[in-house]
Design brief:
Number of strands: 0
Number of helices: 2
Distance between the termini: 42 Å
């Protein structure tokens, strides 16, 4: 539990659920886009008669990437380890004081 005199810091708050979901959707769509590209590449390589090893790599990537997309999309939010910079007020001198 937090000490009563310790303030909450907004800069240490995580992302909102909406932002987190949008990031997950972007990761999923990017990975699935790469999968579609690999699938089209595999078809093109087979069609032009490139050795089967290259086609097999593209096919394997298009079969593995859906699993990678789901795992990446379901991964929790990425945590940052940086500490926020805290403002520390310096004591002010009073106008009529003899301290210099």
């Amino acid at each position: 539990m937090r000490a009563p005199e310790e303030p909450f810091l907004v800069t240490t708050a995580g992302k909102s659920p909406r932002d987190e979901q949008r990031d997950r959707e972007h990761r999923y769509l990017a990975t699935m886009g790469l999968r579609v590209a690999c699938f089209i590449l595999a078809i093109a390589l087979v069609a032009i008669g490139v050795p089967w090893e290259f086609s097999a790599l593209a096919i394997a990537a298009s079969l593995i990437l859906p699993w990678v997309a789901v795992v990446a999309a379901n991964a929790g939010p990425r945590r940052t380890v940086e500490q926020p910079t805290l403002y520390e007020a310096t004591p002010r001198k009073s106008v009529g004081s003899d301290q210099d």
